[in-house]
Amino acid sequence: MVELRGRICVVTGASSGIGRATAERLARRGNTVVAVARREEKLRALVAAIADAAPGSFALAGDVSERGFAERVVAETVARCGRVDVLVHNAATPLHKHALRVSPDEVEATLRTNFLSAVWSTSAALPHMLRAGRGAIVNVSSFAALVVPPREGAYAASKAALCAWSEGLWSDLAGSGIHVALVHPGPIDTEIWEKRQEQSGYRGRRWPARAVADAIVRAVERRQHEVVVPGRNPGLVAARWMRRLAPGLLRFGMGRMDPVPTGVFDEARGRTDPDRR
Questions:
Q1: Which of 121, 187, 241, 254 is deepest in the core (most CB within 10 A)?
Q2: Which position among 155, 178, 216, 228 bears the catalytic label?
Q3: Which of 45-59, 119-133, 257-271 has the weakest average pLDDT?
């Protein structure tokens, strides 16, 4: 077991929700936190709140969906702190929208934030971690990557790409001293529900963001490769088994819970151009 204390930890999407809870958790354990997000005022408030526990912490405001900024986060962290020990890729944008209503531009933007940003900063950080002979990378995916809900295809695809990237790193970094953890949050009470483009049919319980933050810390300390949060929720366990054993029944149940929006097929038919047939 590795004690997560006195480390330089970069947390993306740190202005709220899981990111903020993770930054606070790391700070309480005496780690220096580099808080990354777009909303500078919220980052400043976070750094002020953790200043007593982690006085060397600082914020970097910007958009990780831009490759230059994602790489600069690592460069500036190393320049100011001398190293980067832990990367927590939590930044994400929701895309809860029917496939016939989502645009290619929206899908591309989602992939850049939810997947490519992690690739860019990981690639920038790995040489520094290899030189140090240690490091940890935590990629925050989603339970949606394991069992895809209705109207979550593009979002789930971005998270599934993050899963595949993480699994590849497990093999590629074997023996390097660098640990890669993959965390799948289920229904967590964050701003992501308020930002959805279409209303979700889910009406169940939402777990607090601190549950994911605790899981992230445990995954690093115990060198866990893959974690689902909450871990023992009967609904999530049942969904995973149904996907393997009775996928048709699972799709039927999800369709009843979150049916196809009225008129979506007619809308798509109306976008056709008869002159181009």
A1: 121
A2: 155
A3: 257-271
